[in-house]
Known about the structure:
five-stranded antiparallel sheet, 54% helix, elongated
Amino acid sequence: xxxxxxxxxxxxxxxxxxxxxxxxxxxxxxxxxxxxxxxxxxxxxxxxxxxxxxxxxxxxxxxxxxxxxxxxxxxxxxxxxxxxxxxxxxxxxxxxxxxxxxxxxxxxxxxxxxxxxxxxxxxxxxxxxxxxxxxxxxxxxxxxxxxxxxxxxxxxxxxxxxxxxxxxxxxxxxxxxxxxxxxxxxxxxxxxxxxxxxxxxxxxxxxxxxxxxxxxxxxxxxxxxxxxxxxxxxxxxxxxxxxxxxxxxxxxxxxxxxxxxxxxxxxxxxxxxxxxxxxxxxxxxxxxxxxxxxxxxxxxxxxxxxxxxxxxxxxxxxxxxxxxxxxxxxxxxxxxxxxxxxxxxxxxxxxxxxxxxxxxxxxxxxxxxxxxxxxxxxxxxxxxxxxxxxxxxxxxxxxxxxxxxxxxxxxxxxxxxxxxxxxxxxxxxxxxxxxxxxxxxxxxxxxxxxxxxxxxxxxxxxxxxxxxxxxxxxxxxxxxxxxxxxxxxxxxxxxxxxxxxxxxxxxxxxxxxxxxxxxxxxxxxxxxxxxxxxxxxxxxxxxxxxxxxxxxxxxxxxxxxxxxxxxxxx
Length: 570
């Protein structure tokens, strides 16, 4: 025991306690070193993870912004920059983003972000999307749907936010355009008087107007169901044949390309016209459109019209029988009038023939008998004048008597010429008219230009010559009495089997319809008389006259030429 070293001596309580404390300190120091190494390693991994996270955000195809809770913008994705035109360098704090990009939409984003940082923060609860408008760096206004989340803490202990956006500008615009189109459709369908229903392929009522509801008297619950099947069951009960109505609809729906139009009688007497047609987008069927039109009044009008039409047809048939009878009577009357007109013209022709014969005879008598006696009287007066030459008074009486006799002789010749010019029978119409016109111009001191063409040796019928001659006489007489003309042009020609006489004067003219005319045999021909003379030989007379502008009378007579006649027209 004496040989034990100091180390082998038993420790006191204090020493043992001190040793234990040293051992614990040594162990704690080792552990602290290990924790420090682990912490440093964890911090390195965290920083590496944060950098990778930021890199993932930068390359994200979705517009993403990452910022700390104090407003520092940590990073934005390239798609964010492409969409807004701003980089991190342009707006390094979130307030700049809210002011520059969001504009008046920034308040709603700011409020939403503020709510996200109010404790307690639930990281697993997503932020409700905020729809707002932003203004890009180029000034383009876009509509965003923005939401954000708080994934955790940064390496420096700050919370950070990841915000993501969806550019819904095109969708918003499309929805706005769709709303406009829907309102236009509603306005259009409500403006027509027809009931309109659009049904989807699965039987849903997509659209209807108020007229459709009113026509079928649908209760609110039927409309609220928006089911074509429910509406059909209600509507069928109002038709005159419900089963046929439903069968017809089923038949139509089984034919996707069928278009039809038909009438539907209702129980209450109304009649509707139903039209149906499918709606397609290329080969895809989008639904079916139905229109319903109340044609009750039209059907009633058609019924009344049909009844009136039948009555009118019966009346027309009866009237047709009466008209046929009247027509037969009129035809008979026309035939009788034509017969009488033919007889009248024949009688006129006979009368004029008798008149011309009588004039010819009277002209011959005046010329042959009375003319001879006047000639004998002139000879005797000459003898008396020779024998009583010594008595001057007697000589004066004889001279005066001789002058009177010569005047009477000329008057007899003129009267004989007027009654029937012998040249008309001897040398024909053209030469006779030429002589008559020359004598008429000399007697009344009115210049006349006369021209005859295509009248050769071939004569026209004597009755035609006579009537043309007499009509010419009457025209010249009227010119002398009424026209006050200073010049007369007369043309006589034969063209294509028609003798044409044209007489033009430069007189005062007249209104043909206003001039009173006299018939044949009333002391002068007049217009009516001239027309009747022309009608006797199948001719016509046309008159063109204007007050103070002269008159033109044209006579056309169809003729057939004959050989040169013997004297006196025999």
